[in-house]
Design a protein that fits this description.
167 residues; mainly beta; two-stranded antiparallel ribbon; 12 strands
Length: 167
């Protein structure tokens, strides 16, 4: 009976997707988000083998005074430059995952899932650095708050990441 349980557990592990390493796990980049502030943001990457995600946190970028956001009410999209075999393209991570936040709260967004483009082992991603000011058509990171405060906040990366992610 013990042998059967051990074999069953081994089979389950063999069939489970393996986590793929992304390095480094965290990187920083500077973003300008207009009225929401500008400064250093931390990007935390993960690759479970079935899903690639990035979380964004920053104490320099905050909800403006007098505004708030309910949990999971902010749609966030992050554009990154992908380099694969010498060719570059863009990928996007997007999601609607956030804690409740109020005016002055540091942003905490994600995990955002890879929603546009593909990433293979060995591909590198880095911030899409753009000139300021951010606008509806000029953004690297877009934050769309919907409840109770409605706002679309375009942000531009003003620096490359401290280290590009290698997936």
């Amino acid at each position: 009976m013990v042998l059967a349980a051990a074999c069953s557990a081994a089979a389950a592990l063999a069939l489970a997707p393996t986590a793929h390493a992304v390095t480094p796990l965290t990187a920083t980049a500077t973003y300008d988000c207009g009225a929401w502030g500008s400064g250093l943001a931390t990007l935390t990457a993960a690759d479970s083998g079935t899903s690639k995600t990035i979380k964004i946190t920053s104490t320099a970028i905050t909800m403006p005074p007098g505004t708030s956001a309910d949990p999971n009410s902010i749609t966030t999209t992050l554009k990154l430059t992908r380099t694969s075999g010498g060719a570059t393209s863009q990928v996007q991570f997007s999601g609607k995952t956030n804690p409740g936040m109020s005016g002055g709260s540091p942003i905490a967004l994600g995990p955002l899932k890879l929603t546009s483009g593909t990433l293979a082992a060995g591909d590198r991603t880095d911030s899409v650095v753009l000139s300021t000011p951010p606008s509806a058509t000029n953004w690297s990171l877009q934050i769309v708050a919907s409840s109770p405060t409605s706002a679309t906040v375009p942000c531009v990366a003003t620096s490359a990441q401290s280290t590009a992610f290698t997936w």
